[in-house]
Design goal:
Shape: globular
Order of helices and strands: HEEEEEEEEEEEEEEEEEEEEEEEEEEE
Mean pLDDT: 92
Low-confidence stretches: 1-18
Structural class: mainly beta
Number of helices: 1
Oligomer: single chain
Helix content: under 10%
Radius of gyration: 20 Å
């Protein structure tokens, strides 16, 4: 009995240390009264610049420090897919329909220092993916791709049910979980030691750089790394025709803990992280910036 009592006391002491909680310490609306609906936000790693797409598919950049919004391109951005490269430039894909009625996509690179866009791949039929890398960026395509330099550092992207990872110049390809509809939204942790991605029908998966499974975090979508230990994701529900609820979740990367950052009725979605900030939009295109404290 004495031994049992000592064990219970030990557990009682340890529980407060192991317990976790998160607090939203700041929440504010961005671009209120300045811009129309904004979707697919993407923060840079320092959290001081934000990309977003307009209703008509154009791409803009908002400087959170000086409040200035710049038009990156008025052309339609394919899949509303744009990313920040490790070189501070923006990589994205535009698309247009040719005279043959086929869709053609071209890789583009925008330099905020000069406010100029350079087309870096010729228009081509088929998928073209903008991929961020630790030392630059790339446009991955089955025909003619582009890399910003000979050594773009580490990078990851998906292609069907395959996850591609570049480590020290070596490209590795993994399929750690079965998914008939494929993978999406791959990203490296800030320290470059882990990869998170979404597998259709399975949810968010975290692996190491050898392709070994580390955790499955649940059937959430659009994961982004808040730091090396936590991710932020979207938890959206629908009735087969339209969204019925959507919220932002905080997930521990080892799968042991999760918490709501917004309620399901908030219709919050498409989260992005950078510089200790979380930015998300709503189903109506209202942008919000959130700051949190995580207690352990």
């Amino acid at each position: 009995m004495k031994r049992l009592t000592m064990m219970l006391l030990a557990v009682g002491v340890l529980l407060p240390v192991m317990a976790q909680d998160v607090e939203v310490v700041a929440l504010k609306r961005l671009l209120e009264g300045v811009e129309g609906p904004a979707f697919y936000p993407v923060l840079n790693s320092s959290g001081d610049r934000l990309l977003f797409s307009t209703e008509d598919g154009a791409l803009k950049m908002h400087d959170l420090a000086d409040g200035v919004t710049t038009i990156v391109t008025r052309d339609y951005v394919a899949g509303h897919d744009a990313c920040w490269g490790g070189d501070g430039k923006v990589y994205f894909v535009t698309q247009q329909t040719g005279e043959d009625r086929l869709v053609y996509r071209a890789g583009q690179c925008y330099d905020p220092a000069t406010c100029r866009v350079n087309q870096v791949t010729d228009p081509q039929h088929g998928a073209v993916r903008a991929v961020p890398a630790t030392r630059g960026g790339a446009l991955m395509a089955p025909q003619r791709g582009f890399r910003s330099s000979g050594d773009i550092g580490s990078a990851t992207w998906t292609e069907g049910s395959r996850l591609h990872v570049i480590v020290n110049g070596e490209e590795r390809v993994f399929s750690p979980v079965d998914s008939w509809a494929g993978y999406l939204w791959a990203s490296l942790s800030p320290d470059g030691k882990k990869v998170a991605f979404f597998a259709a029908g399975k949810g968010i998966v975290v692996i190491d750089l050898r392709g070994q499974m580390l955790a499955m975090l649940g059937k959430y979508e659009m994961p982004c790394w808040y730091n090396n230990d936590y991710l932020v994701a979207q938890n959206a529900k629908d009735d087969g025709h339209q969204f019925t609820s959507s919220q932002i979740m905080l997930l521990k990367a080892d799968g042991t803990w999760q918490a709501e950052l917004t309620k399901p009725v908030s219709m919050a979605m498409q989260p992005t992280c950078g510089g200790g900030k979380i930015v998300y939009t709503t189903i109506d295109g209202l942008l919000y910036e959130m700051k949190i404290n995580i207690y352990q």
